[in-house]
């Protein structure tokens, strides 16, 4: 399987048309069609459903698109790293993170580095712990910012100085909004909007299972979210209460408010990277700045 052909495949998947993809790639349509047919023959799978004007991916084609995107990202990242060896003042740094106010500490280091090395570029991927660690393990990210507790057996880490407080986003006209905090009794038998990773396994590790106790199995979870901004929209629409971290949604001049859990539930954060990671010069510089800022100031 040639890397060049994977690029062709992704272009066709993006354009939804062999003719449009051929024009974009500066190829003739017969040449591109032949390359795709050879790829299907090599894999032994049909990748496209060809219509009169459009083509769409088969389930096997969608599987290949995911893998091809990862391969292309990895190759481009590798090429960029070797280019940056020529000049330490430039390069790309890839960071995955969940939604947390503690990213402000990472942003301060980013700003400091770019003030000295403006050709260093940062690329942020937002996702939950599962999303971030998957990309980190595949080498698509240099660093991940993860909410504790974390299985650090595969990673080195630096603990960030703050802890995030868990609570509930509610409408200001709700009963819960009239209280200073949300108790277990308040959240029993009411519709809840939770993050995807708030599964039983994750909750047992993070403290949620202990906080909810035997009521955890009986929660009325009406919706789940990946990005808290979308959760806030669902709260505003009256779908339920969203369990999330504090300071992620600006509730000033809105219909929403935040109420912390009671008893209090907090989570620390770590920035992690794979053990024995070989960094690009730019990523190595970033790590040195992180260590200088967070480990020397303890």
Describe the structure.
There is one protein chain. The protein is of the alpha/beta class and 298 residues long. The chain is 42% helix and 24% strand. It has eleven helices and eleven strands. The strands form two sheets. Strands 3, 4, 5, 6, 7, 8, 9, 10 and 11 form a nine-stranded mixed sheet that branches. Strands 1-2 form a two-stranded antiparallel sheet. A hairpin with a 4-residue loop joins β1 and β2. α1 crosses α2. The longest helix is centred in the N-terminal third of the chain and has 27 residues. It is globular, with a radius of gyration of 23 Å. The termini are far apart.
Give the topology.
Layout: H1 3-15, H2 18-25, H3 29-43, E1 48-50, E2 55-57, H4 59-85, E3 90-97, H5 103-116, E4 119-126, H6 129-137, E5 143-147, E6 155-171, H7 184-187, E7 192-195, H8 200-206, H9 208-212, E8 221-225, H10 228-236, E9 241-245, E10 256-260, E11 266-274, H11 281-295
Helix pairs in contact: 1-2, 1-4, 2-3, 5-11
């Amino acid at each position: 399987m040639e890397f060049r052909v994977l690029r062709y495949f992704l272009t066709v998947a993006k354009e939804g048309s062999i003719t449009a993809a051929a024009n974009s790639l500066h190829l003739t349509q017969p040449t591109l069609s032949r390359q795709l047919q050879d790829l299907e023959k090599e894999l032994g799978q049909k990748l496209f459903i060809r219509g009169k004007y459009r083509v769409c991916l088969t389930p096997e084609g969608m599987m290949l698109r995911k893998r091809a995107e990862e391969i292309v990202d990895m190759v481009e990242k590798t090429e960029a790293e070797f280019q940056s060896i020529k000049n330490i003042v430039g390069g790309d740094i890839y960071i995955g993170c969940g939604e947390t106010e503690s990213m402000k500490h990472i942003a301060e280091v980013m700003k400091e580095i770019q003030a000295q090395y403006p050709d260093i570029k940062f690329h942020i991927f937002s996702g939950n712990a599962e999303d971030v660690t998957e990309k980190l393990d595949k080498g698509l990210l240099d660093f991940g910012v993860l909410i504790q507790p974390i299985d650090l057996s595969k990673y080195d880490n630096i603990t960030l100085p703050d802890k995030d407080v868990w609570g509930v986003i509610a409408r200001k006209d709700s009963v819960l909004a009239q209280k200073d905090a949300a108790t277990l009794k308040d959240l029993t038998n009411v519709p809840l909007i939770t993050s995807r990773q708030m599964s039983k396994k994750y909750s047992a590790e993070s403290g949620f299972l202990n906080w909810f106790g035997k009521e955890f199995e009986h929660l009325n979870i009406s919706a789940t979210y990946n990005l808290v901004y979308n959760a806030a929209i669902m709260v505003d629409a009256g779908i339920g209460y969203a369990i999330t971290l504090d300071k992620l949604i600006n509730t000033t001049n809105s219909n929403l408010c935040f109420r912390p859990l009671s008893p209090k539930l907090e989570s620390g954060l770590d920035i992690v990277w794979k053990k024995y990671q070989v960094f690009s010069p730019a990523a190595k510089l970033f790590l040195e700045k992180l260590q200088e800022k967070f480990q020397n100031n303890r």
